[in-house]
Amino acid sequence: MTFRIAPSILSANFAKLGEEVANVIASGADWVHFDVMDNHYVPNLTIGPLVCEAIRPCTTAPIDVHLMVKPVDRIVPDFAKAGANIITFHPEASDHVDRTLGLIRDSGCQAGLVFNPATPLTWMDHVMDKLDVVLLMSVNPGFGGQSFIPGTLDKLREARAKIDAYTARSGRTILLEVDGGVKVDNIAEIARAGADTFVAGSAVFGAGKDSDPQRYNSVLANLRTALAGV
């Protein structure tokens, strides 16, 4: 299994965002995770398409946009034009989940569904053909720095079983991503439960001194070492 690490810029220094993105990718990260909150679907307000467009020239790595907004369809084309590669959303935020997934893919991006801790996985059963990513929240969305919810491990196993059964039938691969409280001392256990893509915010961007452009090397290396033992 190929593992991907996607640092969440929600925990980055916004005064140096382009520099932060370039440094974390240079230190070995695979994706840039881009959290979009609207103070409506979740109780926080973050960043939008203009910021995505601004950081796009800073890296060639995939930008993984997680939309925590409602309604969702209006903003999808804006993020696609701004340079997003992957766009995921919460099924509760769309009146027509299949249509929203189609809109994302028609806009030239990979598409995915995001499941809150209490959201059942049954939403994915009818749209597997349009899914490129399934993202499980291991915290309640809205704020960085929260602790991993242990019950997510069982949910990851359930999602992995669904994905593997679908892949066996169709030959298509769907990535299984996890977001929230991921760090060096639990990433291996999370991977064993079935995840292949890991969002890490404060665990990465909280490392080292802000003045050191190499400060992410150690924590990313430690995450990789933990995953190598899986």
Write the layout of secondary structure elements.
Layout: E1 4-7, H1 17-26, E2 32-37, H2 49-55, E3 63-68, H3 76-82, E4 86-89, H4 97-106, E5 110-115, E6 133-137, H5 152-170, E7 175-179, H6 187-192, E8 197-200, H7 202-205, H8 216-228
Helix pairs in contact: 2-3
The tally of helices reads: 8
Number of strands: 8
CATH fold node name: TIM Barrel
Low-confidence runs of at least 5 consecutive residues: none
Q: N-to-C SSE series? A: EHEHEHEHEEHEHEHH
Q: So what's the overall shape? A: globular
Per CATH, the architecture is Alpha-Beta Barrel
Determine Rg (CA atoms, Å): 16 Å
**What profile does the largest beta sheet have?**
8 strands, parallel
Tell me the count of domains.
Answer: 1
- In whole angstroms, the N-to-C terminal distance is 10 Å
Category by helix and strand content: alpha/beta
Mean residue pLDDT: 95
